[in-house]
Amino acid sequence: MPLAIRLPHHSGVLEADGSYPRALNVLSRKQTAVQRQLRRSGLAGYEPVTQATLLALAQQAPPGSAVYDVGAHIGLYAALIDAVYGHRLSVHAFEPTPDTARICEDIRRHNGLGFELITSAVSDTPGTAELCLSLKGESSNSLNAAHRKHTETVSVPVTTLDAFTEERSARPHLIKIDVETLEGQVLAGALETVRRHRPWIVLEILPSSDHDALGRALDVLTELGYGLHLLQPESPWPGRNRGDYRRHVGGQCRDWLLAPAPLTYDFHHAVRTWLRAILACDERTNLIVPAGVFFPHGWNAPYRSALASEVHDRLSWRKSRPGRVQART
């Protein structure tokens, strides 16, 4: 059955950036692990702090800059950021798993979004590699054969973020990385991009990650002035240092922020504001229709700012008024 999820309403962003869709068609309620979770709990139950952090960072991005979603899966984060900020940011989703990438492309097309899908893995060296398809589920696919039990592999192209950035002359402001234990290799292939553009980086770190490779990359980022913060609902987030981050890995939240500048009150306020809006998008706001049935009229009508809504209402009222009849004398 087709599933549409409610997107968070942020009045400040609507005032500053204009309208954006109120819902996203994610096509199915059970095809992948992400879609099943969205069906059970809406956006509110799917990594809400990570969503809020990404949206807050995209909110502060200069016009014309880029967002990279590395390990995009069905493209939920790419779609979310593109739906809200796509008019002024370029969003690029990297997803190597063929079946998952097809769903990502379908979501992009059905919602009329403009993000780019790159069907490639990302690591420290360009070329080709064997992607291991996990028995646990498609969200655990990895270039690391030791990460999960698997019975099948597929050969996929591999790029680096440095190569992609140079090829596109992109200016990344935000990079999200979720690559199932090989985060260090992705960072190693992005160090020139980091030096030149100093993007904010949201990074999933697992207990089974390659901590030798990750540690080497974090050493470089630390030298470049990056701070390391574990994402959590409460703020402010304390800084962690390169030497003790591992004892904080494996908790309820697996995502970290590599920050090129100190975290400010305004940043934390932006995260909290988005988080409240996301938590309002629970399973009660989902829209599910039977297969072959269209969503009801207006299901995706855009959110508008208070001023834009007032103008829209006035214009609608004028159009609906019956024409005046000239009295005869």
Topology:
Blueprint: E1 3-6, H1 11-17, E2 20-21, E3 23-25, H2 33-41, H3 48-59, E4 66-70, H4 76-85, E5 90-94, H5 98-110, E6 116-118, E7 121-122, E8 127-134, E9 150-159, H6 161-168, E10 172-177, H7 183-188, H8 191-197, E11 200-204, H9 211-223, E12 227-230, E13 239-240, E14 255-259, H10 265-279, E15 287-288, E16 302-303, H11 306-320
Parallel strand pairs: 4-5, 4-10, 5-6, 7-9, 10-11
Antiparallel strand pairs: 1-3, 1-15, 2-16, 8-9, 11-14, 12-13, 12-14
Helix pairs in contact: 3-4, 3-10
How would you describe this protein?
By secondary structure, the protein is α/β, with parallel strands linked by helices. It has one domain (47-281): Rossmann fold (3-Layer(aba) Sandwich). It is built from eleven helices and 16 strands. An eight-stranded mixed β-sheet has the order 6-5-4-10-11-14-12-13, covered by helices on one side. Strand 5 (90-94), helix 5 (98-110) and strand 6 form a beta-alpha-beta unit. The protein is globular.
What top-tier CATH class fits best?
Answer: Alpha Beta
Order of helices and strands: EHEEHHEHEHEEEEHEHHEHEEEHEEH
Mean of all residue-level pLDDT scores: 90
> Within the CATH hierarchy, at the fold level, what is the topology?
Rossmann fold
Quick structural gist:
The chain is of the alpha/beta class.
Throw out a few tags for this protein.
disordered C terminus, alpha/beta, eight-stranded mixed sheet, three-stranded antiparallel sheet, 35% helix, Rossmann fold
